[in-house]
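=== RUN LOG ===
request id: a7f3
mode: sequence -> structure
chains: 1
length: 488
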Amino acid sequence: MKKKLTFSLLLAGAILALASCGGNDVSSSDVPSSEATSEVTSETSSATSIQKIDYVAQTKLPQDYKGKSFLTNGIGQVDLVRKIDGDTAHFYPHGQKNNLIKARYNCIDTPESTGTIEPYGFGASDFNGEMLASAKTIVLSTDPADQGDKGSVPITDSTGGRYLTYIWVSEKENAPYYDLKLVNLALVQEGWSKQKGSTGKQFADAFIGANQQAMDLGLNVWSGEDDPDERYQKAKAQAEPVTLKHIVEGKNSLGEDFDWVGSKATFEAVVAATGPDTGACYLNEDIDGKRYGIYVFTQYKVLTPLTTIGNRVKITGMIASFGGDEETGEGGVLQLVDAKYSPFHQEGDIEIIGERGDGTYQELTGTIPELAVEQNINVICSLNNLTCYDGKAVQDTATATAYAFTLYCRDGNGNEINIRIDDSMAIYPGDQPGGDSSKARVQKIDYFKSASSIDVKGAMVTYYNRYQIKLCSRQGITVKGADASLAV
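=== RESULT ===
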């Protein structure tokens, strides 16, 4: 049974001994009074006092934000547009109504409360919202470890649409930078989030210390108990497991309209094709008589469960959109990013469900009008007896031999579709799939135009609102009756 216990803060000398937290110096003026107390919920009935450190009070923004812009300098004041959930919010630069900044909170990962409903997700979202709503000064900053060769200019996270940020707040107007509180750290300190990926970051010590303290105190996500929040209990009773159908059709686990871009999802599907990027694959799943698909981009890392076509996997990652409007994300093709894998089955692993695949997958077949529809985006499809009437070839200047092709094709009834061949995929002359690799690589569109017919298998995607089959491997295309003398 839970009991309320009062925990005394560390004495000043003990705090100074631990003052390295977050890499910031702590002066005697920053040390909380030893008379201050904090109430927390404990799982123990022991009368033993647990000494609690206020890592949030100790952690300071290391530089002034005034006169700077987040989008230019990696630090700047902003105005809240909307809170999304526990670790995501949207802002405008202070005093502006454009250049929307979609912020993903650095070093944390709160439970979900939107697409997928997870324990303590609603509480984390409320806690974040309350800190933002009460703030009269909000400042965003980036971590030097995340900038790479970009200097102070912020870069987007793995979804390509959100900035990885620290969120600093104060209830004072135009607050001094040293008065601001770090919302990310507060969420960890109060047990609304586990710290994630803080190693090597600017405030690593503070995040790790606050995380351990919340564990020791059994706060919220560390309580070991089911979330008592009535909203969670109701959602839990109503929710279904998330599927590719939910994601593609824009529904959450409760069947409500939901934009998945920028949210975490866990679902099951089959590896339908691998490539064209190293380590990447397409996942497909048949649900309620329809097939759904998504592209998995692994940042060129090879994740073993995704390497065998036919594998059925359970996967967790962030949903992103590629190729859409930069401001709204509309019109893009869905991707899953930030998927992790460890052979030791740590949290977030990709898991093979049941037996491994046999290296085959039965793609959808049909005509262009049947296959080139929105429902089939990211689904592996095949089309036969196409002819190429034109196209584009783009040379890779680094190699002078690798070419990317976009083939403009049509069927016998005049229906049109493109075929996309990335420059990483060599096509050779010959009537067999992918051609004869003993010959020189195809470098000209004229070779494809001279063919009597082309058969192709790949992922159905769109590019500038035109449907195209994106080749996943060179064996996915068979060029018949082409003039080999036109290849180079």
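=== NOTES ===
The first strand starts at residue 3 and ends at 8.
Residues 70-205 form a domain with the OB fold (Dihydrolipoamide Acetyltransferase, E2P) fold (CATH 2.40.50.90).
=== END ===
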